[in-house]
Amino acid sequence: MPKQRLITLANTYPLLFFFFLLTSHVFVVTSKSTIEPCSNSDSCNALVGYTLYTDLKVSEVATLFQIDPIALLLANAIDISYPDVENHILPARLFLKVPITCSCVDGIRKSVATRYKTRPSDTLANIADSIYAGLVSADQLREANSISDPSVLDVGLSLVVPLPCTCFNGTDNSLPAVYLSYVVRTVDTLAGIAARYLTTITDLMTVNAMGNPTINAGDIVSVPLPACASNFPSYSSDFGLIVPNGSYAITASHCVQCSCGPGNLNLYCTPAPLAVSCSSMQCANSNLMLGNATMQATSGGCNVSSCSYGGFVNGSIVTTLYTSLQPRCPGMHQFPPLIAPPTSAIDGSLFVPAPAPTESGGVGSTTPKTSVVPLIGSLPGLAPANAPAGSTSSSPLLIRPLSSFPSAIILYLFINLFLMAL
Ligand SMILES: *[C@@H]1O[C@H](CO)[C@@H](O)[C@H](O)[C@H]1NC(C)=O
Ligand SMILES: *[C@@H]1O[C@H](CO)[C@@H](O)[C@H](O)[C@H]1NC(C)=O
Ligand SMILES: *[C@@H]1O[C@H](CO)[C@@H](O)[C@H](O)[C@H]1NC(C)=O
Ligand SMILES: *[C@@H]1O[C@H](CO)[C@@H](O)[C@H](O)[C@H]1NC(C)=O
Ligand SMILES: CC(=O)N[C@H]1CO[C@H](CO)[C@@H](O)[C@@H]1O
């Protein structure tokens, strides 16, 4: 039930509205989300878990969140080499991880870069609950856009859609992590979420400052995902890049693609397979390209030279040549498995874990773009960088953003009822 309608009703017919409230359960349903206080103006990479409300093209989902369609695909390890992949139609109820930038706004972490253009027959409730799948509430939309009368929503308004996100210093238990804001469904349990994202109930309870493991549909839980951090200099435009295990990211104006896992959590970057013109990706004083390595077995061990990505600075791709002597020569680099653009949403929920590269012929699996990337295992100089946008994170607060609304109305109704009874 759209809450803005309830407000109007409450002002006009308090008694009637009170009985309506008694018979509905609107006022007991309050959602919780994890709020991270912040003080810096820094930002971090974060993800929101989004379930498609209808069939949408890749580019349409990207437009909903004002993000790059390629970034959306790669964050979900979807193969971007499919022809016309941006116009591929994704099925309703598919679950996607949407990469967003998490900022610090009015002292708390949130993302405010997303705008939605209202269409005929939109209501705040349907924008919040359906189009943005519960990532925002109608009340939050009303507040963020100072809408005094939500019952009249003009067509073509550009609404700010505040999205929940957390950074927590880019770490979880001192290891690099990216946080996924996950909207709890009726069928979810904390144990189920922990199992799906390979974490523990304890960790989820700590991250979300929960006193007990109870979650309710509509709550938004922050889920830490192990990730590969970068150590680009602070003046690079992709400073703080951090890529979750099992996924890819695009950077340097679509010239460079970085991936994380599965063998280790060292960020691994190569030229991106997109037809764009790029500055040189060759390491100085060598014939190695980004991601290339040479190995030479010597009596003292394996002499490994590798060409690594060092950030995007003033429109140039920074490359660094690392040479090291390792006990033995690393094997071929394993990439996170890519999946074909999804055509059906299994069980309306999620991505089944991508099949391991060895399980050839797994459903929808495709081989990564080996054409661009011959590579090796652990590269020298690519240790996890411990350099996410360093924020000072204080402990999280669990608040109930909607709770003030129903109690205020209920109080108002009681007063009205009392006065009428006199
Ligand atoms: C990264 O993902 C791979 C494949 O899903 C998994 O085997 C590995 O344990 C993960 N690493 C971490 C640190 O979670
Ligand atoms: C390792 O290889 C690099 C480049 O191939 C070379 O410059 C260097 O001298 C070698 N180091 C050793 C210890 O062999
Ligand atoms: C980037 O360019 C600006 C001016 O265009 C210059 O002041 C700055 O030093 C450059 N930064 C680097 C790291 O080269
Ligand atoms: C933030 O993360 C860095 C490494 O990424 C770590 O050195 C630092 O202690 C962390 N700060 C806090 C407050 O956790
Ligand atoms: C020597 C070597 O491995 N060269 C490769 C470096 O990477 C480029 C593109 O990533 C490949 O095309 C080269 O074959």
TrEMBL record:
<keyword id="KW-0472">Membrane</keyword>
<dbReference type="InterPro" id="IPR056562">
    <property type="entry name" value="LysM2_CERK1_LYK3_4_5"/>
</dbReference>
<dbReference type="InterPro" id="IPR036779">
    <property type="entry name" value="LysM_dom_sf"/>
</dbReference>
<dbReference type="InterPro" id="IPR018392">
    <property type="entry name" value="LysM"/>
</dbReference>
<feature type="signal peptide">
    <location>
        <begin position="1"/>
        <end position="31"/>
    </location>
</feature>
<feature type="domain" description="LysM">
    <location>
        <begin position="114"/>
        <end position="161"/>
    </location>
</feature>
<keyword id="KW-0812">Transmembrane</keyword>
<dbReference type="Pfam" id="PF01476">
    <property type="entry name" value="LysM"/>
</dbReference>
<protein>
    <recommendedName>
        <fullName>LysM domain-containing protein</fullName>
    </recommendedName>
</protein>
<dbReference type="Pfam" id="PF23472">
    <property type="entry name" value="LysM2_CERK1_LYK3_4_5"/>
</dbReference>
<feature type="domain" description="LysM">
    <location>
        <begin position="180"/>
        <end position="223"/>
    </location>
</feature>
<feature type="transmembrane region" description="Helical">
    <location>
        <begin position="402"/>
        <end position="421"/>
    </location>
</feature>
<keyword id="KW-0732">Signal</keyword>
<keyword id="KW-1133">Transmembrane helix</keyword>
